[in-house]
Specification:
The protein has 203 residues and is mainly alpha-helical. The protein has one domain. The protein has helices at 3-16, 24-52, 59-99, 104-117, 129-165, 179-184, 195-202. Helix 1 (3-16) packs antiparallel against helix 5 (129-165) and helix 3 (59-99) runs antiparallel to helix 5 (129-165). The chain is elongated, with a radius of gyration of 30 Å. It starts with a helix and ends with a helix.
Length: 203
């Protein structure tokens, strides 16, 4: 189960270094595939480990706790990583706009617009083609630079999970109360019918 989180972390790291001008097939798809493979190696074994550690009569409770913990962890992860991304988007985008080759008036207007509207600030009307392209590139670069630390933080969380998976005890599945009873039942041999009874029934 440790290889699943490692594959997920590797996929997230690949996605963290995707640039604004990247190709989906070459740069995005490998990270997505690696992350997906890691999930398949993680979710099913984890569920089996949780259910295998609980008696059969408590399987429903164990499954519910497993689902609850997974949903709470996903919500906390989205909140933390999303907060980091949101806080970095403004600062990284403003830095990209200020370092772009733009007229001073357009640079100041774009910086103020990013502070007010975020990275979705539209290119002002009447902007020349070259300045519009430079401003659009600066806005997309700011978003990319903000995504990278957030995804690296997410990869770090996944690596912590991979380390914690090494601490899971290797215990055999807990057997339910009824398994010994079932195993103790002997196979009954078929009973041969009485020929006299069969003949009397036919008559």
């Amino acid at each position: 189960m440790t290889f699943g989180p490692l594959a997920c972390a590797a996929g997230v790291v690949l996605l963290a270094y995707v640039g604004s001008d990247a190709s989906y097939v070459v740069h995005v798809l490998p990270g997505m595939l690696l992350f997906s493979v890691g999930l398949t190696m993680l979710v099913a074994p984890l569920t089996a480990a949780v259910l295998g550690a609980a008696p059969d009569e408590h399987a429903g409770v164990a499954s519910g706790i497993n689902s609850t913990v997974r949903q709470v962890g996903a919500a906390l992860g989205v909140a933390v990583v999303g907060s980091v991304f949101a806080s970095l988007t403004i600062s990284r985008t403003v830095d990209a706009v200020k370092s772009a080759a733009l007229p001073a008036s357009l640079r100041d207007t774009a910086a103020a617009g990013v502070h007010a509207q975020g990275a979705s600030f539209p290119v002002p009307r009447g902007t020349s083609g070259a300045d519009a392209a430079a401003l659009s590139h600066a806005l997309s670069t700011g978003i990319t630079e903000a995504v990278r630390p957030a995804l690296l933080l997410a990869a770090g969380f996944v690596l912590v999970g991979a380390f914690l998976s090494l601490l899971l005890p290797r215990t055999p599945p807990v057997r339910g109360e009824h398994e010994p009873l079932i195993e103790s039942l002997e196979v009954l041999e078929p009973v041969q019918p009485d020929p006299a009874a069969v003949l009397a029934r036919d008559i």
